[in-house]
Every structure is written in structure tokens, then in C-alpha cells.
Amino acid sequence: MAKAAHFDDIDVPGETKKKRSAPPKKKGMERVLDTIERVGNKVPHPAIIFVALIGIVMVLSHVFYLVGASVTYETINPETHQVEQTTSAAKSLLTGEGLRFMFAGVVQHFMDFNAVGVIIVAMLGVGVADAAGLVGALIRKLVAVAPARALTYILVFVGILSSIAADAGYLVLIPLAAAAYLTVGRHPLAGLAASFAGVAAVFTVNILIKPLDGILTEITNDAIHIMAPDRSIDLTANFWFSVASVVMLTIIVSLISDKLIEPRLGPYTGEKPATTGAKLSPEESRGLKFAFWGLVGVLVFFGLLALPPGAPLRNPETGALVGDSPFMNGLIVAITILFLVTGAAYGIGAKTLKNSVDVIKAMEKAVAGLGGLIFLLFIISQFIALFTYTNMATLAAVKVGDALEHAGLGALPLLIGFVLVVAVLDLIMTGAIPKWAIFAPVFVPLLMRLNVDPEAVLAAYRVGDGPFNAISPLNAYFALIVTFAQKYQKDAGVGTVVALMLPYVIVVFAVWIALLVAWQVLGLPWGLG
Questions:
Q1: Closest by alpha carbon to 464, among 412, 434, 509?
Q2: SS3 helix, strand, coil % of the chain, rounded to 5?
Q3: CA 245, 248, 251, 256 torsion: positive or negative?
Q4: What is the Cα gyration radius of the chain?
Q5: Integer Cα distance of 255 and 246 in angstroms
Q6: Which residue ranges run through the membrane (predicted)?
Q7: Could you tell me the residue ranges of all domains in the chain?
Q8: pLDDT tens column, 476-508
Q9: Beta strand spans in 177-305 (E)
Q10: DSSP bridge pairs for 84
């Protein structure tokens, strides 16, 4: 039987004989990540996963309830700033009380899940900006003025800074970063991964003072006063360490993205925008001018409401603008208005929006596109509410913390061990404030007795609480990132995102711990105070 001809070996008239080169063999890490992605994407739909997790939690909660599992510990009440002796016992979801909690609380659990409201409110403004064409024009303008090699660094740096606006980075920057990469002919998932790493894995530090800093500082001071009533730290207690972390991690995350993640993804073969590489048209340029004046108007409006002494958006009791104030608590509303006004202004200038009906339709379209995500968040909200009710996360945190406290380690090993414990528990207990309220009264006085500054303990907590946010299934926005990824890769799933983010998590965590250790050993100042 004659051998079948291979197309690679066929002579084409007028052309030299060609052979297809075999695809390059993937290295060890690339094979591992491909395996993680392949296995991860074979698991059921995330909604099914969380339904299964609810069943597991129900069974485990009853087991712990039957054996009488409980812990007694000191915690700091963030509202009263008092150290309280608290006892938490395992609560079963299969008792009469537990069943009533599950049945009667379904609607309330969903309403109490802040991520849902934040996403819907934010998309009202972003949807208008996107429909008008402002988002695309801004991306192309950014690509035109930013050096091509600096694009990743800019997006990662902005992602880290976005923590000043709480959840805005997840909702606005990450999809913009993916689109920006696509505009310059790069793989959009690489842009998504780099910005997600900046927003999530480095969430706990910034070069600016953000609302979370105020709460963490207050809890730290309450823990300090257990041992030293006259000693306190201020909001800038970790300023120098945070600045160094931001600079270092911007470089590290960008290098991981450019040298590892994007090469692994290969060239993007999906649909590309027709305007890729095109210059702005006169209409688009006029639209950007209108958007600029809309931006100025919004800034003036909020400046009048927030900047003068006694302004309505300042804290009515303390007069503070940063921290616990109406402005910071409602920052997502300000961002929504900013996108809504600038998007509408751009649409008028570029003639992409003709009237108010077009604006309303854009908002309706944005919310309608969230249907699948809202359903998934509904399931996740039930799981988080039921898991919190059982007290199992608190039991784990206290037990592991007690074990570490009594391990007899020295100051530096204990500090590193503390970071590791916080990181592991972040996978099941994502809230930065409740974890610190439990850990601070234990580890701040303990490490102070070992001559470790409380500023160092707070810095260690930031390191532990950051990186694993990017792969935690309980991160309220993890499902949203999967949804963003599916825009560019239809079969993307949980495994795709985990495989993308795992290199960031591992490297950032290791390098950040090394920075913490070096800072402590060298005795460098942690902050401005």
C-alpha cells in the first residue's frame, strides 16, 4: 500500500519545498500549568461546585456540633475598640435552628452580599461609557501615548493603586487591560491576568492611604494597648514598606506576565477589533474633548461636596474625608457617575449617542449582560452566609493561631509562620478585617514581647492577606474574572484562571516574604511615624 502523501512534503510550483516546524516543547512549569488548567476546567460549573460545598459544610457543621467543638479567644470589637473575651462554638446547619436560618434567610443572604450591588451599580456607568465608545477610544489613546514595552507596568501599577477605590479595579481596570492588550495585538488574557494580579494579589498595600488602612490601624492600636496603653501607631505606620512593596511588586508582576504568562498563552487567534491600530477619527477626538469637560464637571461637583470643611461627604463627627466617611463609603457611586457623565458626554461629542433613550438602553444592556454572573453570585452568597454561620472558619483561625503561638519559635520564624497562617486561612476567610480582629490581640502583644515592632506585625499581616486573593474561590470577584476570560476564550473556566494566576501567587508571595524579612533584619523604618 502506498504511503499517504503529507501536505508538508508537497511541492508547490514557484515555491521552495517547505516543512512545518514542530511546535516547541513546553517546559516543566508550562506543562504543570496546562495540567492545572485542563483538570480545573473539567470540574463542574462553579454554581454546581458551590452547591456541593454547601452540602459538605452542612455535614461537617453537624459533625463538629456533635463533638462540641468550640474556642475561647480575645478579639477586638472594631466598633467599640474594646478587647472582648469571645467563645465561638460550632453551629450545625442540620438542627432546627440551622434549618430555619437556611430557609428564612435566602433572600437576606443575597441582599447582604455587597458584591452584587457594587457590580450592578458600577456597570450602569461603565455600560454607558462602553456603548458610547469612550472605553475603546481611551484604550487606543493610552496605547498611542504609552511606550509599548511599558504597557504592562502601567496597567499593573494602576491595578495596585486601584485599591484606594475598593472594588473599582475588579470592575473597571481588568476588562480594560484585556481590551488594551487586544488593541496592540497581544493576548487579552495576559492583560487580564497582569491587572488581576495587581488588583487582587497586592491589594493590601498602596502608596496612598486607603479606607482599609484606617480600620486595620485602629485594630492594631487596640491590640497594642493590651501591653502598652500609652503606645499607638498612625495611618502611615507601614508607609515606607508599602511604597517599597508597590515598586517591587509592580516590576515582579509585570515580568511574570511578559516572560511567563504571555509566552505560555501564545498568539491570540480569536476575534480582533476592526479598529486595532487605527488612529482616532475627528469625531472620536471631539468626543474625548467633551468627555474631558464632563470629567472636569464631575470633579468640581464632588470637590464642592467633599473638600470644604464641614462638606456633606465628610465624616459629620470627625470631619475626616479619608477612612470612615460618606465619600469613601460611597466611592463606587462617584466612579459610576464619573463613567456615566463622561460616557454620555463622549457620545454626544462623537455622535454615538443621540439622546437620553440611547443612554438608558446602554445601561439596560449592561445590566442584562450580568444575568449569569448574578445567578452565580446568588449561589456564592448562600454558601458564604452558611459557612459563616457555622463558625468553622473562626474555629480554624483560632486553633491554628494558638498552635503557632505555643510553637516556641523565635521572633523572625514566628513572624514568617504568622504570614503563612494568614495566607492559608485567606483561602477560606477572605475578609481582611475579621481575620485581623482575631489575630491582632494574639500576635501583636506576643511579638512585642519578643521585641518586634507592632508596625512589623501589621506589615506581615498585609503580606499574608494579599497574594492568595487571586486564587481564592471565596473571593467575591473570582467568578467575575472567569466571566471576563470567557469573552476571549469561550471554554475558559475556573482552571483557566487558576493556571493563569498561580505563578503570580507563588512568586509574589515568596518575594514579598523575602522583602519583609530583609526589612525586619535591617531594621528599616516601616512608616513615617
A1: 509
A2: 70, 5, 30
A3: negative
A4: 25
A5: 14
A6: 47-67, 115-139, 151-182, 189-209, 237-256, 290-307, 327-346, 367-389, 409-429, 436-452, 467-485, 497-522
A7: 44-75+83-522
A8: 788 889 989 999 998 888 889 999 999 999 999
A9: none
A10: 75
Residue 523: enclosing H or E segment and its boundaries? none
Q: With cut-offs at 50, 70 and 90, classify the pLDDT of residue 352.
A: very high
Give the residues across from 72 on adjacent strands. 87
- Report the C-alpha gap between 320 and 214 in whole angstroms: 11
Which long-range contacts (C-beta less than 8 Å, at least 24 apart) are formed by 207-213? 207/161, 207/242, 207/243, 207/246, 208/161, 208/164, 209/235, 209/236, 209/322, 210/163, 210/164, 210/166, 210/322, 211/166, 211/322, 211/323, 211/324, 211/328, 211/329, 212/163, 212/432, 212/433, 213/238, 213/323
**Residues 6 or more apart whose Cβ sits within 8 Å of residue 179:** 135, 136, 139, 188, 191
Lowest mean pLDDT among 89-93, 352-356, 470-474: 470-474
Grid coordinates of 512: 514579598
**Between the CA of residue 138 and those of 173, 289, 331, what are the distances in Å?**
12, 11, 22
Alpha carbons 26 and 34: distance in angstroms, whole number: 10
Angle at 341 (CA atoms; ends 339, 346), nearest 5 degrees: 90
- Check residue 160 and give its pLDDT: 92
Sign of CA dihedral 172, 175, 179, 181: positive
pLDDT digits (tens, 9 = 90+) for 4-24: 444 344 344 444 444 444 445
